[in-house]
From TrEMBL:
This is Aminotransferase class V-fold PLP-dependent enzyme. One of its GO terms (biological process) is carboxylic acid metabolic process. The keyword Lyase applies. It holds the Pfam family Pyridoxal_deC.
Length: 485
């Protein structure tokens, strides 16, 4: 097909075929993609097409070759990393926006829902006093929040860092358990990765406040400018929640921006059993949460919340561009009124973060909350936490298992053990690789106080309690076989 006739047909029949292929994939009856890598890679490996094959052939390749050899991430037994497959509501909403509103701008229903969903998400997660903006993930969400912190810290010194750059040494305080995107944010923002000061944690992975105060006092004596204190509301490693209230008071005492990284764990606030762990969140100057983690959004949806988005405007605003400045009406002028969606860009998210082009992420969050409500989200969070708690109880009592960390959220760290095993770390590493290759239960590993642990993190909307028992049975069976063979 040499000419562009790709859009002359109807979407419906193609979507029906695509939906059927995806439904079949979600049965998870297929082997892992690597099992037949030579076959599908050979089919896909071709030179740049000079002549097109048409949409029907493209759809056939998608449904017959690419989708069946997709990622294990949506599998309910996948508990390796804090990511998951999208729920149906998320998939439908993102598909709708990709056609009906490719960008989040202009005065449309999608732009309106972008803001509405931010209000909903903030209220649901206990930070309704903050204003938000979506981005692609925790990496950018942390960058945006710390960009606001940098702007605020330097403005107090009478300097505009976004306009003039950095003119002195700075510091960001974060625990040893902070996500590595904090260091990357320091590098991107011109503060330097070495500006991140690692604060020791207690045995439970929570930031200790005494070393934090000591570090701040030492830096102040050296003339180093404190930019932010970063606390975890659910660390990536173990799900630990830092003492937010104590850290918030320290931030207030020293007038330092208080940032809470809740990319994974902030939705845990919906579990009423954990309410005390989140006390102090109201003191935060910025908070992030990734709906594409625990809430079931398609990957590429994160949110940054700050007290006043104007600080983000000053930190990230673009210089004027001829092709933009006259493209919308000036509603400040007398008698000017909006008569078309192109008359107004809507809420100017492009000045609150680092993305100009951006999809409508809010429609995804809106759809998920609208579908099951706060009550449905709470039930999911509680179920996942209960899965970790049940696994912890089993590991604590089982003679062949050992619990290495008591879970706070939906992460449980444990391992197989037996008296005849000389090197438990090496043994459990071997066990883990065999477990993964069975393609049914797929946790990751980590180290807890130097000891290697199996680390399932239950966040998938399709994850159910029965999978805990299945995981335990598989670990014990594989461990027994490794000992006996």
């Amino acid at each position: 097909m040499s000419k562009d006739h790709a859009e002359t047909g109807n979407l419906q029949p193609h979507l029906n075929k695509l939906g059927a292929a995806l439904d079949n994939y979600l049965k998870f009856e297929h082997p892992d993609a690597y099992f037949s890598i030579n076959e599908w890679q050979t089919k896909l490996d071709e030179a740049l097409p000079q002549t097109g094959v048409g949409i029907d052939e493209v759809l056939k390749i998608l449904t017959d070759t690419i989708i069946p050899n997709g990622s294990p991430v949506p599998n309910p037994g996948f508990t390796s990393f804090i990511t998951t497959g999208a729920t149906t509501a998320s998939t439908l909403a993102s598909t709708a926006s990709s056609i009906a509103s490719p960008q989040r701008y202009l005065r449309t229903a999608f732009n309106y829902v972008e803001e509405l969903s931010l209000h909903w998400l903030a209220e649901m997660c206990g930070v309704k006093h903050l204003q938000g903006i979506y981005s692609s993930g925790g990496s950018v969400a942390n960058l945006v929040a710390l960009g606001g912190a940098r702007q605020w810290a330097f403005e107090k010194q009478g300097h505009d860092p976004a306009l003039h750059g950095i003119d002195r040494a700075t510091r960001i305080y974060a625990s040893h358990e902070c996500h590595h995107t904090i260091q990357r944010s320091g590098g991107v923002l011109g503060l330097g990765r070495r500006a991140i000061k690692a604060i020791p944690c207690d045995a439970g992975g929570r930031m200790q406040t005494e070393p934090l105060v000591e570090a701040i006092e030492s830096d102040l004596r050296e003339g180093i400018l404190p930019v932010a204190i970063v606390a975890n509301a659910g660390s990536t490693n173990t799900g630990a929640i830092d003492p937010l209230s104590d850290i918030g008071k320290i931030a207030q005492q020293y007038q330092i921006w208080f940032h809470v990284d809740g990319a994974f764990g902030l939705p845990g606030i919906l579990d009423e059993r954990l309410a005390d762990h989140y006390q102090g969140i109201e003191m935060a100057d910025s908070v992030i949460v990734d709906p594409h983690k625990w809430l079931g959004a398609s990957v590429g949806v994160a949110a940054t919340f700050v007290r006043d988005r104007e600080i983000l405007n000053r930190a990230f605003t673009q210089e004027p561009a001829d092709y933009l400045e006259g493209s919308a009406v000036d509603i400040s002028e007398e008698k000017t009124k909006i008569e078309h969606s192109l008359d107004d860009f809507g809420i100017p998210y492009f000045d609150y973060g680092v993305e100009l082009s951006a999809p409508c992420r809010g429609i995804v969050v809106w759809a998920m909350i609208k579908e099951i409500g706060v009550a449905g989200m709470r039930d999911r969070i509680v179920r996942h936490n209960d899965m970790a708690y049940r696994l912890a109880d089993i590991a604590r009592d089982h003679p062949k298992l050992e619990l290495l960390d008591t879970p706070t959220l939906s992460i449980c760290c444990f391992r197989y053990r037996a008296p005849e095993i000389k090197d438990l770390d090496q043994f459990n590493q071997r066990l883990h690789r065999q477990l993964i290759r069975e393609n049914t239960y797929m946790p990751s590993t980590t180290r807890i106080n130097g000891q290697l642990a199996l680390r399932p993190c239950f966040v998938g909307a399709r994850a159910e309690m029965y999978q805990v028992d299945g995981l335990v049975e598989a670990v014990i069976r594989i461990g027994d076989n490794l000992i006996n063979n």
